[in-house]
Give the backbone structure.
Amino acid sequence: MVHTSVVSETPTGGIRSARLRVESEAVYAGTGAAVVCGIVAFTLFIGRVVPLWGGFSVGAVAAISALVAGIVAAYIGYWRSRHRPGQEWRLRIRPWKFILDATTVALVHAILAAIFTASVFVVLQRSFDGLEVDVIIGTIGVVAAAGASSYLIYLSVSEISTRKMATLLVAFMALSTLASIAAVEDELWWTYHFSQLGTAGDFSAWMFNTTLIVAGFFVTTFTLYLHRDLTTLVERGILVHQWAPRVLTVTFVVLGVMLAGVGLFPVDVNMAVHNGCASEWRRRSRSWCSARRGS
């Protein structure tokens, strides 16, 4: 009886132990990022007073710190999470696929952290117009941004699922596109067409095109999780059509490649390729939506 009780409690204890380990590692990642970025910020700000946002500012350094530290934390956390219960299947992924997978997951998390950080400092600057801070306050702001971003990103990538991937994709495209619109210099871009946002030749155009490219590759990463889930449903007899996992995987891969193509070839660089990718992406999306309604 004692042996049976111990065996039944082992899985629960193992899961709890794994979660505590991930939490501890996330704290270490956040602390390490805070220390390193704090030293860099102190070196940059010493002997100066800088604004919260605008040019060389606390917000700019904090956003860059959140981006860089977030990428590092995401890579480490995503790599280590392969050994967690339920994630062992990722150990069988080919190395180049895992590198692409980890890169897109890291970029999406880090870019979201950078956008959120920049937005906070923009709001603070407008709330305290004309405020400039010394090296201590500036360093604290960078430390808080880098530490919190790394901690939260490490936790997020350690619990990746198909549903979370879909949520991240929508949030990434929405927030990054809004950030591009907010930063665009041409206030009348919307009077032409949406692709005009990627032709300005400024930071907003770079952000918009980069968003499409990263989102496209992120869609292809999403297919790894989708294929696994659909294959599991087929094996359990819940999904009748055995061809569904492969067909849907190919469809989403094509969607991702076409979306990345729209960003790689802006309308002012190659209109034919840009329009071709956009048209194919719309056609595939409509086919997918029609298939879902039909089912």
In short: The first strand starts at residue 50 and ends at 51.
